[in-house]
Amino acid sequence: MSSHKAEAIIVTCIDFRLQEAINKWISENFEPKTFDRAAFGGGVKELEQILKQIKIANNLHHISKVILVNHEDCGAYGEEGTPEKHAEDLKTAKQKVNEFYPNLEVSTYFLHLDGSFEPIS
User: Fold this and answer.
1) Domain of 115, in residue numbers
2) pLDDT tier at 3 (50, 70, 90 boundaries)?
3) What average pLDDT does the chain have?
4) Count of domains for the chain
5) What InterPro entries does the annotation carry (predicted)?
6) Looking at residue 105, what is its pLDDT?
7) In 3-state terms, what secondary structure has residue 50?
8) Buried b (16+ CB within 10 A) or exposed e, 68-87
9) Is residue 20 part of a domain?
10) 107 beta partners
């Protein structure tokens, strides 16, 4: 049993264009070394993969928060990647995480190309 503890897992897309904005946001909202980070092309699009990572972070690092971030102009979504589709997928992902892990606080965001994070509720 691991004694390591992380406050959160932060799930984002792999898109290189947004890493600077993501890093800045994380540094403004989390202390260094208090989070796990997972990146997948499409953010929450591949929900099963994300749920596996959340399970690992929860079991090994006893997280209390899950942060899910999708972004504008995501190539993995292609033409279906409208703001409405991202919001719908983020809400579905949040619901699924809450189903499996009712003790975890889940926050969802839509990241704009200008680096601004829009909370999705």
Assistant:
1) 8-120
2) low
3) 96
4) 1
5) Carbonic_anhydrase_sf, Pro_CA_2
6) 98
7) helix
8) bbbbbebebbeeebeeeebb
9) yes
10) 67
Q: So what's the pLDDT on residue 72?
A: 97
Q: Model's pTM, two decimal places? A: 0.95
* Residues 53-77 pLDDT 10s: 999 999 999 999 999 999 999 999 9
85 lies in a domain? Answer: yes
Residue 60 tokens, joined = 């090994």
Taking the C-alpha atoms of residue 30 and residue 7, their distance in angstroms, rounded to an integer, is 8
Percent of the chain surpassing pLDDT 70: 98
Residue 21 token pair? 């904005």
Q: Is residue 62 part of a domain?
A: yes
Classify residue 1: in a domain, yes or no.
no
3-state secondary structure 65-114: EEEEEEECCCCCCHHHCCHHHHHHHHHHHHHHHHHHCCCCEEEEEEECCC
CATH number of residue 71's parent domain: 3.40.1050.10
The span from the CA of 25 to the CA of 20, in Å, is 9
Comparing CA positions, the residue from 5, 9, 1 lying closest to residue 49 is 9
